[in-house]
Amino acid sequence: MAFLELKAVSKGFGSNGSRSEVIEDINLEIERGEFVAIVGYSGAGKTTLISLIAGLIKPDAGTITLNGLEITDPGPDRGIVFQNYSLLPWLSVFENIYLAVDQVFCNWAPARKQQHTEKYIAMVNLTPARDKRPGELSGGMRQRVSVARALAMDPQILLLDEPLSALDAITRSTLQDEIGRIWEQDRKTVVLITNDVDEGIYLSDRIIPLSAGPGATLGPSIAIDMARPRDRRAVNHNPRFRQIRREIIDYLLGVGGKKRATVTRKLFLPDIEPEDLSVPRNTSSSRRRPIRRREIKKETVEINS
Amino acid sequence: MITNRRSEFKLDWLILPLLGAVFVLLLWQIASTMWSKDLPGPLRTWNASKPYLVKPFEKRGELDQGILRFAWYSLLLVAKGYAIALLIGTPIGFMLGLSKFFAKSFDPIVQILRPVSPLAWLPLGLVLFQKSQPAAVFTIAICAMWPTVLNTAVGVRSIPQDYLNVARVLKLSRSKTLFKVLIPATLPYMFTGFRLSLGIAWLVIVAAEMLTGSPGVGGFLWQEYNALIYEHIILCILTIGVIGFILDRLMSLVERRFKS
Questions:
Q1: CB B181, CB B167: distance < 8 Å
Q2: Who wins on pLDDT, B79 or B4?
Q3: Would you state the pLDDT for residue B1?
Q4: pLDDT at position B22, please?
Q5: pLDDT in tens, B120-170
């Protein structure tokens, strides 16, 4: 049995009438110590998928197990890094991380908790900003705090929900290197959700495309058999890297992307005809009458979803 | 552009308000001489008010004290009522914000009691407590409570889901979630409520004192009306305004501290 297992997981939102399945029939097996990247379009349901693993929402169908235990609610054994950092703005960097440490290692002595917190602040190179509030930090620094907080809980699995999407390109690549470096240190199981194919290939052991929603599902997984540590500059010229990238992009643009849906909808048009303004108004006494036509148009459209 | 430049000369913050004050004083003077002989003009008001302003804390008799001494009595009463309003109002606001069941049960009652005038509560307070002072405190508390209740409830409802997710992922206990997440996230809204509540408390005190005749700015005002010393009515109005203004400024300073 795999470490993290998703079996036939589906999740949709809305009630019967306007219900839409966000993700459908997701099957995923991740081994302990594996770094898996899931790439897909924005809005494909990536965040839904990670929220399911985190336990923040419950699947409509299927089961999710971690280490053989079914996930029913969120817990500190799954460290999660959200796209929007989710730091508490009234707490300093130290306090944000300490809150997590204090909660997870509640029977440690205070000095040990403090030392543990400092260690993770140092790991993400934020010791100088230790007492700053998140509002005083740049986006990249905030995301580092968020990563440090997740790691400091010593989770069994680390869930990264588009952690770098909100950052500029340079900060982004620095943080990618940093995440790679930190991962080398303790080789935790990681699920990285991203919309950047290069980022996924650069960091992970295995990359899986998520098809476009609604009803998104996982495509074929591709193992990234490139030696670590990877060099950012060399990787770009690596033929294997290019090949994997092409495969993923082909899937996303082809099978995974070309999901078309046909929708028939009633269009309630305003019950009025446009007036011909080129016809001059004859006298002031004769008021123009709006021309009405009582009908409702029906239209069938094909939408790219 | 021209208006912009003209309103930004040196010391405009001082001169423009003074000009406004002079204009109103002129209107006042005109009204008192041309329109109503009973309305004392600015100069008469000043002369009659002098003993109360120059020695603001003097106590010459039970009904004849310096204006700030009267104000002090009023403020003490307001402080009591306001403290009770916050102590009761904040938890109610939290419960309204947190529990849909509680909100559905009690929101209609809150909405019905909220617009009731202090003048309507006061007699009920007198019935309940028999004495004028506790009745005034009761009235202040019950009237000043609502902005705190409603703002706190809104604040709790608008806490971003992210913060709540953090609490859920960390499995914070109920009390820890309350003190580490809910209260800090709601504080800015709470302080807006506190400020509005203080304004209402100060409004209510005057009405309460007038009706109960207890010593204070409002009581003094009513007593001087009965004694036909109209100059002192104006003195009281100005005092009430200035103190209300200062209270509001103080609260908005505190509020700003919590919003940053």
A1: yes
A2: B79
A3: 43
A4: 92
A5: 898 898 899 988 889 999 999 999 999 999 999 999 999 998 899 999 999
Q: Which amino acid is at A223?
A: A
User: Which of B216, B220, B221, B192 is CA-nearest to residue B205?
Assistant: B216
Q: What is the pLDDT of residue A100?
A: 93
Q: Could you say which residues of chain A have pLDDT below 70? A: 16-17, 256-270, 273-277, 279-305
Q: Which of A175-179, B56-60, B92-96, B256-260: highest mean pLDDT?
A: B92-96
User: Which CATH number applies to A1-75+158-166+179-262?
Assistant: 3.40.50.300
The domain that holds B205 is classified in CATH as 1.10.3720.10
- Mutating which of B169, B178, B187 best tests the A interface, going by the most A Cβ atoms within 10 A? B169
B196-229 per-position pLDDT tens digit: 999 999 999 888 888 887 888 888 888 888 888 8
Q: Give yes or no: residues B104 and B165 share one domain.
A: yes
Task: Specify if B169 maps to a domain.
Answer: yes
Copy the structure tokens of residue B110.
């809150």
Coil, strand or helix: which one is A303? strand
| Whether residue B229 sits in one domain with residue B157 | yes
**Structure confidence by residue, pLDDT tens digits, B66-91:** 788 888 989 999 999 999 999 999 99
Confidence (pLDDT) at B57:
72
Q: Does A56 touch chain B (CB under 8 A)?
A: yes
Does residue A192 contact residue A46 with C-beta atoms inside 8 Å? no
Q: Which structure tokens are listed for A257?
A: 């992307």
Candidate from A54, A90, A91 with C-beta closest to B169: A54
d(CA A155, CA A71): 14
Nearest chain A residue to B258, by CA = A90
Q: Which domain holds residue B142?
A: 59-259
Reading the block at residue B167, the tokens are 């609490």
Cβ–Cβ below 8 Å for B181 and A88: yes
Are the beta carbons of B180 and A99 separated by less than 8 Å?
yes
Please tell me the total count of domains within chain B: 2
A-chain residues within 8 Å CB-CB of B167? none
Quick check: B240 pLDDT over 60? Answer: yes
Residue B187 with chain A: CB contacts under 8 Å: 90
Task: Give me the mean pLDDT over the B97-118 stretch.
Answer: 91
CA A14 to CA A169: how far, in whole Å?
36
Query: Is residue A127 within 8 angstroms of chain B, CB to CB?
Result: no
d(CA A200, CA A233): 15
Q: Domain boundaries in chain A?
A: 1-75+158-166+179-262, 78-154, 263-304
What are the tokens at A134?
A: 């998140």
Shortest CB distance from B163 goes to which of A75, A78, A88? A88
